[in-house]
């Protein structure tokens, strides 16, 4: 019927006299001729239909049951996205963010650590703390993922250390110790967008989370994220526990292919590392009895200048005091070293992920 209607319209447009409406109505049994596609029917005694709701109207209607987080994010969606497609993407992002947080608190995080420690007679008090972390306050999982990728850059981590050190008030010039002005400006624009820092005037800035007193907490989070995102391993960080023989603070734990991995991270320069910290690391290894233990110094300086000799001295002393054979330190590659079959000592050159992967490759 629709094709016939269009043919009749074509004849009328081509110059042939159009049939009277009464004759057409009789021929069609009183039914109205279908509308042409793409247009609205006009005529005497008829009411034009209201135009369909535009994208903004559909968004307003569809966003009513959404959380404030999703509705707030709608303003930052890609310009080519419209209506329900945009809102669907935002809902997926929020769900991904919620799942990530649940994983950190459930069997993929704190509960995993609880049972791991319980089997060793140690009781978990808390894990995965966020109060003192430098994390994006704006956005959701997409922004967290972007921040994580940026954290892979050693220069960005040095930049964040200075931001924490200066905290209450600083300028771009104050942050140019390790990077160029162009790089620092790019870093600052990013952390302003993420609400990690805020402006204090035309040229001054301030750290948003004043509870962040050290970069160490954020570096623990970053290493845990590497295990979760790059190696698909359940992981937890910032663990506090009791009933351990030696202290009860553990930086990062992970389970890789059924193997328990313990990681101790050091974000301060090598010159600030003391023998007592190496001893404390080895004590924790004895308490936890992991399949592999990794000592990370976040530096791109040579490990053999200070860290390696310090380990050798501490291992020699412990062997003498304990009446056990001395464990020897051997070089794996670059500035990565291995102690026996269980312990690894690494820096962050060329990057943390590559060096962790090398340790896992050798131990598994």
Characterize the structure shown:
44% of the residues lie in helices and 15% in strands. With 364 residues, it is an alpha+beta fold. Among the domains are: 133-207, Arc Repressor Mutant, subunit A (Orthogonal Bundle), CATH 1.10.10; 216-363, Trna Endonuclease, Chain: A, domain 1 (3-Layer(aba) Sandwich), CATH 3.40.1350. The strands form 2 sheets. An 8-stranded mixed beta sheet has the order 1-4-5-6-7-10-9-8, with helices on both faces. Strand 9 and strand 10 (343-346) form a beta hairpin.
In percent, how much strand structure appears in the residues?
A: 5-15%
Widest sheet: strand ordering: 1-4-5-6-7-10-9-8
Number of strands: 10
CATH class of the domain at 216-363: Alpha Beta
- Helix count, DSSP H or I runs of 4 or more residues: 13
Shape type: globular
Report Rg: 32 Å
Question: What is the name of the CATH topology of the domain at 216-363?
Answer: Trna Endonuclease, Chain: A, domain 1
CATH second-level architecture of the domain at 216-363: 3-Layer(aba) Sandwich
User: Stretches where pLDDT falls below 50 for ≥5 residues?
Assistant: 1-79
Largest sheet: 8 strands, mixed
Give the overall pLDDT as a whole number: 81
State the end-to-end distance: 72 Å
Structural class: alpha+beta
The succession of helices and strands, N to C, reads: HHHHHHEHHHEEHEEEHEHEEEH
Q: How much helical structure, as a percent, in the residues?
A: 40-55%
């Amino acid at each position: 019927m629709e094709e016939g209607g269009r043919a009749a319209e074509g004849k009328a447009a081509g110059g042939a006299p159009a049939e009277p409406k009464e004759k057409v109505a009789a021929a069609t049994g009183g039914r109205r001729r279908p509308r042409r596609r793409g247009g609205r029917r006009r005529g005497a005694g008829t009411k034009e239909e209201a135009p369909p709701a535009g994208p903004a109207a559909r968004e307003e209607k569809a966003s009513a049951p959404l959380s404030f987080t999703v509705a707030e994010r709608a303003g930052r969606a890609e310009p080519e996205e419209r209506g329900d497609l945009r809102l669907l993407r935002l809902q997926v992002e929020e769900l991904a963010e919620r799942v990530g947080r649940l994983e950190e608190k459930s069997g993929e995080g704190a509960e995993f650590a609880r049972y791991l420690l319980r089997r060793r007679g140690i009781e978990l008090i808390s894990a995965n703390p966020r109060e003192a972390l430098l994390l994006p306050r704006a956005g959701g999982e997409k922004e967290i993922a972007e921040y994580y990728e940026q954290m892979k850059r050693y220069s960005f981590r040095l930049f964040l250390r200075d931001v924490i050190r200066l905290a209450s008030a600083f300028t771009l010039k104050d942050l140019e110790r390790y990077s160029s002005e162009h790089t620092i400006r790019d870093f600052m624009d990013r952390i302003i967008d993420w609400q990690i820092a805020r402006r204090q005037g035309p040229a001054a800035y301030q750290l948003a989370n004043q509870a962040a007193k050290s970069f160490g907490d954020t570096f623990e989070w970053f290493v845990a994220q590497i295990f979760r995102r790059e190696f698909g391993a359940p992981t937890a960080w910032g663990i506090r526990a009791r009933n351990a023989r030696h202290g009860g603070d553990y930086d990062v734990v992970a389970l890789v292919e059924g193997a328990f991995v313990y990681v101790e991270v050091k974000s301060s320069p090598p010159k600030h590392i003391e023998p007592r910290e190496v001893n404390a690391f080895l004590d924790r290894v004895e308490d936890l009895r992991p399949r592999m233990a990794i000592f990370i110094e976040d530096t791109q300086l040579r490990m053999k200048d200070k860290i390696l000799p310090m380990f050798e001295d501490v291992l020699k002393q412990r062997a003498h005091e304990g009446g056990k054979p001395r464990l020897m330190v051997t070089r794996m590659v670059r500035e990565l070293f291995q102690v026996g079959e269980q312990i690894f000592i690494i820096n962050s050159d060329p990057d943390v992920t590559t060096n962790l992967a090398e340790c896992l490759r050798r131990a598994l």
